[in-house]
Write a structure and sequence with these properties.
142 residues, alpha+beta, 2 domains, 3-stranded antiparallel β-sheet, 9 strands, 33% helix, elongated, disordered C terminus
Length: 142
Amino acid sequence: MKIKNIILATQDEANLVLDSLSKVVHNCGYATVEDLYMLVDISSDHTLHKYGWKDVASVSVTLVEGQGYSLNLPEPELLDELTNMTEAVARETGLSISTCDELFKKGWQFVQSASRPARWESPAYNLPASAFTPIKGDLGGQ
């Protein structure tokens, strides 16, 4: 997938976009092309959340003579199934992707079945459901 060439007016602005993109990667484990486009106020289509970067540490800002400053980003990659699953759960629950990522990283599971409502299940087997803040739907311990 090819991304749009983004030219920013100042080096400070380019560094701010890069810092923001780095924070997204740090908080979520990845940043999408859609995240980048939102940071620079470019409209995007719904498929851009499937592509992105898991590391932007090697990205640099370069002067484009007579135009401004550009981010030297590698080609975005198709993000894995976990990323797509996290986004699907975020849509289902109404939570942010970063919140869902954090729950998954802490061992929580999002469970859907025909016999019970969709719910988050705790990794803490001995804690009652009342020990947790409800998110949406049934939040139960195992």
